[in-house]
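Q: What would this chain look like folded?
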Amino acid sequence: MNEPSGVTAAFWAALPLGPGVTVLTHDANGLGALAKPAGIRSHPNDELAGVDRHALLTAGYTMEGEHFEWTPPGATIPARLWLLNRLDAATSGVILVAADAALAASIKELFQRKRVRKVYQALVFGAPERPVELWRDWLKIERSGGQIRTGTGGGVVAETQMSVLRGSRGEPKLSLLKLEPRTGRSHQLRVQCAERGLPIVGDMTYGDFSASRDFFRAGGAKRMYLHSAETAFDYEWQGQTHRFVAKAPPPPEFRAVK
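A: My prediction, written as structure tokens:
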């Protein structure tokens, strides 16, 4: 299948990627997935922000349109790339983008309808009571001054399927978890882990600050150990059904569990 005009392999190869960001995959319709390192923002924080050297792309971003925009070398027409989902700056892994506005709107609708499968890995202190659990909580999400803080006891439901991938034998006790959120609440996974006495290593908002500092002093990489490992879904486009799968293997530091 030929790629639509303007969304060629050369388009993806020439993206003004932020530090450490890589292209994981893209399809013939203009849908793509990037791998975002920890410490890189999904987009600049300010409305109609200029270039942010620590964002997904080193290009201007429009909050209202939810897209990056830049003029490639030698071009007269600006290029655009729509952001389809977001990750906290401290979270690494798969993030979706589209080179077509209508396609972007279609994929965002799938997110709203909960038709997108997302898989995360989290390194946590402690060990779950059972190897497989369905976590269901009521969360309270507060936004103030551009900051988000999530807690339990609110009126918004959050569900996550948890399974243990492996656990450590030594101290501190560590577990590597597979987390599949069924809802997409702000800071959902971080809060649900902490609520069960399983704080994510390096989470300096909801986690165990002292244990994280000790972990770093012992040689652990200084980051939050939450990673978006896979995103998969089917979507309809131009009368056909397409399957899209993007995978980003966890960074080497996630091998701390032995």
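Confidence is low (pLDDT under 50) at residues 1-5.
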